[in-house]
TrEMBL record, chain A:
Bilayer disposition of the protein: Lipid-anchor
Protein location: Endomembrane system
NCBIfam families tied to this protein: small_GTP
InterPro entries xref list: P-loop_NTPase, Rab_GTPases_membrane_traffic, Small_GTP-bd, Small_GTPase
Record-given protein name: Ras-related protein RABA1f
Keywords from the named record: GTP-binding, Lipoprotein, Membrane, Nucleotide-binding, Prenylation
Keyword Nucleotide-binding: yes
GO cellular component terms, A-Z: endomembrane system
Record flagged with keyword Cell division: no
Upper lineage: Eukaryota, Viridiplantae, Streptophyta, Embryophyta, Tracheophyta
PANTHER family, alphabetized: DRAB11-RELATED (PTHR47979)
Sequence similarity: Belongs to the small GTPase superfamily. Rab family.
Gene Ontology molecular function: any one: GTP binding
Main subcellular location: membrane
From TrEMBL, chain B:
Pfam families: RabGAP-TBC
Name of protein: Rab-GAP TBC domain-containing protein
Single Gene Ontology MF annotation: small GTPase binding
Region (Disordered): 275-300
Superkingdom as given in the UniProt entry: Eukaryota
Keywords: GTPase activation
All residue ranges annotated as the Rab-GAP TBC domain in the record: 27-218
InterPro entries for this protein: Rab-GAP-TBC_dom, Rab-GAP_TBC_sf, Rab_GAP_TBC_domain
């Protein structure tokens, strides 16, 4: 077992889910973040996809285990099982299709019904490169995020704009919650078992540290 | 054996079902594939019994799923030359077939994944033929209906995944144990196998051979091929930890995807009894006993 851990060393492992309507660009956000790839010819996701990437947060290596889910409503029968144990979520809409923004509320409810209250949620307005087709204003989305106490960023998987920032911000916030929690209970965060998803549940309330993140305009 | 337009087919298949099975397992010649698929799936009969219906569905009806379908058209076999051209003949046919089905069965409508079935069929037959073959499969002209793959709650997907899980444990106990330890669940790798009958991410030359058998023998072959893939890669898979395991289960090596190696291995795996037992187990677990409570009451 030790052999494969050597090239795969991390301090924390966080489970993150990518959700949102079909066709908003979840899979391309994932491939941009984990492999720096973007494809105009990608297939619609059937079921779930999975990828990982490790980044450095403060002085720790944080590994994100990211589940990308099919967006069509019918698929929630399968995909909602993947929300369990998630400590972070990127809830994606398409800035050129207003209906995908309107549905964010339902996704949020879905998420809150299936996950721990302390989950870090980032509202992500993707396809920011399609400036002439914009249908959702940055201000509206920002106001919504403030009201719902989620983070917010606009991205473009195609232009690689803010993609790393969005994921990094989510992972940083999760890390903050976890270290604060560990501090509270006098535990050594580095001693948390590897290979297991860290649960941020408990008395600590992440919403206290939530604020609307920066967004590109 | 087939006759002009399939006229001798029914006679032959009744007399020599085992010859047909054996020859189909060897692979249907590509030039006959479209015709034979329609004959063995029962879709030819549906087409002949329902003249004008397809046209009606495509031209005169509107579907609530039109936008959903359009959004997925360019995301169905995007690198296949037939479907590449925007608004080209491939994309138009695909749209029409999916729209027609979403009107034909408004309750199921359009569900992601159907496009891969329809797309594969359209490589071998006309729109109308592809539509009726889709109907034959989902409504169960010859085999058990598959519409449960796409109905609300995806009930048949859930059942098949449960059955596969059990079959892996039975046929490949060491791998089954490893999956349990690494917390690998069939929905992480096999949903697409069932929802698109191996057409989503497997090479065409393999998918076509699987479809030959699938249309004649039914969904059993999907389990057999799935188990054969796991068996072929067994020794590698049992060494891998969670993440690498998931990757491996979604990216089988080329030699495993060779139909002439994989299919004979699949044929050698017996699943009939296992499928029946696990189906009953699944129904018991989910509170269905095969008969509805009303019937039970009447029987008392």
């Amino acid at each position: 077992m030790g052999a494969y851990r050597a090239d795969d060393d991390y301090d924390y492992l966080f489970k993150v889910v990518l959700i949102g309507d079909s066709g908003v660009g979840k899979s391309n956000l994932l491939s941009r973040f984990t492999r720096n790839e973007f494809s105009l010819e990608s297939k619609s996701t059937i079921g779930v996809e999975f990828a990982t990437r490790s980044i450095r947060v403060d002085d720790k290596v944080v590994k994100a285990q990211i589940w990308d889910t099919a967006g069509q409503e019918r698929y929630r029968a399968i995909t909602s099982a993947y929300y369990r144990g998630a400590v972070g979520a990127l809830l994606v809409y398409d800035v050129t299709r207003h209906v995908t923004f309107e549905n964010v509320e339902r996704w949020l409810k879905e998420l809150r019904d299936h996950t721990d209250a302390n989950i870090v949620i980032m509202l992500v307005g993707n396809k920011g490169d399609l400036r002439h087709l914009r249908a959702v204003s940055t201000d509206d989305a920002k106001a919504f995020a403030e009201r719902e106490n989620t983070f917010f960023m606009e991205t473009s998987a195609l232009e690689s704009m803010n993609v790393d920032n969005a994921f990094t911000e989510v992972l940083t916030q999760i890390h903050r919650v976890v270290s604060r929690k560990a501090l509270d209970i006098g535990d050594d965060p580095a001693a948390l078992p590897k290979g297991q998803t860290i649960n941020v549940g408990g008395k600590d309330d992440v919403s206290a540290v939530k604020q609307v993140g920066c967004c590109s305009t | 054996m087939i006759g002009v337009g399939g006229s001798d087919w029914k006679h032959y298949i009744r007399r020599k079902p085992h010859v047909v099975k054996r020859r189909i397992r060897k692979g249907i010649p590509d030039c006959l594939r479209g015709l034979v698929w329609q004959l063995i799936s029962g879709s030819r009969d549906l087409l002949l019994m329902n003249p004008g219906v397809y046209e009606q569905l495509v031209i005169y009806e509107t579907s609530a799923s039109e936008l959903d379908i359009i959004r997925d058209i360019s995301r169905t076999f995007p690198s296949h030359i037939f479907f590449q051209q925007r608004h080209g003949p491939g994309q138009r046919s695909l749209y029409n077939v999916l729209k027609a089905y979403s009107v034909f069965d408004r309750e199921v409508g359009y569900v992601q994944g159907m496009g891969f079935l329809a797309g594969l069929l359209l490589l071998y037959m006309s729109e109308e033929d592809a539509f009726w073959l889709l109907v034959a499969l989902l409504k169960g002209a010859v085999h058990a209906p598959m519409e449960g793959l796409y109905q609300v709650g995806l009930p048949l997907v859930q059942q098949y995944l449960f059955q596969l899980d059990q079959l892996v444990k039975e046929h490949l106990p060491k791998l089954g144990e490893h999956f349990t330890q690494e917390m690998i669940n069939p929905s992480m790798y096999a949903s697409q196998w069932f929802i698109t009958v191996f057409s989503y991410s497997f090479p065409f030359h393999l998918a076509l051979r699987i479809w030959d058998v699938f249309l004649y023998e039914g969904v059993r072959i999907v389990f057999k091929v799935g188990l054969a893939l796991l068996k072929y890669c067994h020794d590698d898979l049992t060494k891998l930890p969670f993440e690498k395991l998931i990757h491996a289960l979604r990216n089988f090596p080329d030699d495993a995807m060779n139909p002439d190696t994989l299919l004979p291995l699949a044929y050698s795996i017996k699943v009939s009894r296992g499928l029946e037992e696990t189906r009953q187990e699944y129904e018991k677990k989910n509170g269905k006993e095969g008969k509805s409570p009303e019937i039970e009451k009447q029987l008392e």
